[in-house]
Design a protein that fits this description.
Length: 122
């Protein structure tokens, strides 16, 4: 009987861990997609990935890299609940000046069953 209980508990732990990983992966993917949309000034992409709390900033987000050449290098994001931490850099060329902007932590929320970027994390 003890064996059956231990087996059942093991299965429950494995299944619950798998579900959490999927959500964490999904929230990290949402942040990665948002950052790609932002450097490409992709208004539709940003609109689909930004939280409702920040919808009023969509124009600003779209414009932030619209007049520069930008790329993301070595991006890797991982989620810990409602915070996604990313490593890598945004490389931007402003005229002849190159700037490296380190990726950081971002807040995410789930709205309508989808993960959405919701600003800088703490």
């Amino acid at each position: 009987m003890k064996f059956k209980i231990l087996l059942f508990l093991s299965i429950v732990l494995i299944v619950s861990a798998c579900g959490t990983t999927g959500e964490n992966d999904a929230s990290a993917e949402a942040v990665e997609s948002y950052l790609e949309a932002k450097i490409n000034s992709d208004e539709d992409g940003i609109r689909n990935l930004i939280c409702s709390e920040l919808e009023s900033t969509i124009e600003l987000e779209v414009a932030s890299f619209s007049s520069v050449e930008a790329s993301i290098e070595n991006m890797s994001c991982a989620s810990d609940g409602d915070i996604v931490t990313c490593s890598g850099t945004i490389n931007a060329l402003y005229g002849t000046e190159e700037r490296e902007i380190a990726l950081s932590s971002y807040r995410v929320v789930q709205e309508d069953g989808e993960w959405r970027w919701c600003g800088e994390g703490n």
